[in-house]
Design a protein that fits this description.
Keywords: Lyase, Metal-binding. It comes from Paenibacillus anaericanus. Pfam families: CbiX. This protein is of the alpha/beta class. It folds into 2 domains: 4-74 and 79-113 and 238-255, Rossmann fold (3-Layer(aba) Sandwich); 119-230, Rossmann fold (3-Layer(aba) Sandwich), CATH 3.40.50.1400. It has helices spanning 16-30, 52-60, 79-87, 119-129, 153-172, 187-198, 213-222, 239-255; strands spanning 4-10, 39-43, 66-71, 108-111, 139-147, 176-183, 201-206, 229-230. The strands form 2 sheets. The protein has a 4-stranded parallel sheet with strand order 2-1-3-4, with helices on both faces. A 4-stranded parallel sheet has the order 6-5-7-8, with helices on both faces. Helix 5 (153-172) links the parallel strand 5 and strand 6. The chain is elongated.
Length: 258
């Protein structure tokens, strides 16, 4: 008999607010699931007692035979997606060297997808920044993500964030939408381009799940001396993330007839 269980994995943080916001989003998704499906939230690092192996062990101790893994990361260009997939045995070798070892598990692994260009996340992004818009016909929304310095990973980052930017543009009604990355750094040049070539007000939307160094320091430091519109708000907390998690779980269950 197949017994499904869910393991949501996100990046670790010493910030208890980040851990709490992820837990809250997962709890909201659980409330919509069929009753009795065990679910664990685990973290790649830092959060003691709640690392990935801890989550696997707790689920398997409940008899889980089919492990639905939901990677709560914004891009398939993240090196963390690569190393986690490798550690779960989803690929023979990682594309980039990792310290992660294969996890101990006996359950069948059903590995989900990161956020990339999901339409629910496009709604979430626009909902976070729409209050900043004053003159849509003269504004551009610039979606800013982490990016990557590694070949292959960078291309996946660009593909996902470009498509996501297009989705947000369709929702927003703004004149334009674009994206920039911190790695390799294109944030300042993109803001200057839209201001000088199109006369646009630039609304910055950070594509980061949690507030922290990147939203509070990295992005503003690259834009010193420029005019732009920015709230600094990360994606979480937001109720639509729970919907994204729920959709991921249900889609896997339907496809595998669980």
């Amino acid at each position: 008999m197949s017994i499904p269980g869910v393991l949501v994995i996100s990046h670790g943080s010493p910030d208890i607010e980040w851990v709490t916001s992820v837990d809250s989003a997962v709890a909201e998704a659980v409330a919509e699931l069929p009753g009795g499906i065990p679910i664990e939230t685990s973290f790649l690092e830092i959060v003691e007692g709640r690392l990935i192996q801890d989550g696997i062990d707790r689920l398997e101790s409940q008899g889980v035979t089919d492990l639905i893994v939901i990677p709560l990361f914004v891009s398939s260009g993240s090196t963390h997606i690569d190393e986690i997939a490798y550690a779960f045995g989803m690929k023979n070798t990682p594309e980039k060297e990792t310290d992660l070892q294969h996890f101990r598990l006996s359950a069948r692994v059903l590995f989900g997808e990161p956020i990339d260009d999901d339409p629910v996340i496009a709604e979430m992004i626009w909902d976070k920044v729409k209050f900043l818009s004053r003159n849509p016909a003269q504004e551009v929304l610039l979606l800013v993500g982490h990016g990557s310095k590694h070949d292959g990973f960078l291309q996946r980052w660009e593909q996902g964030i470009s498509s996501l930017s297009t989705r947000v543009a369709e929702l927003s009604g703004l004149a334009y939408s674009d994206y920039a990355l911190l790695n390799p750094d294109s944030v300042r040049s993109k803001v200057i381009y839209w201001q000088e070539n199109h006369g646009c007000e630039v609304i910055i939307a950070p594509l980061f799940l949690s507030a922290g160094y990147f939203t509070k320091t990295a992005i503003p430091s690259r834009l010193s001396g420029l005019q732009y519109i920015y709230s600094g708000e990360a994606l979480l907390p937001h109720h639509l993330l729970s919907r994204w998690i729920l959709h991921q779980i249900l889609n896997i269950m339907r496809s595998m007839k669980l």
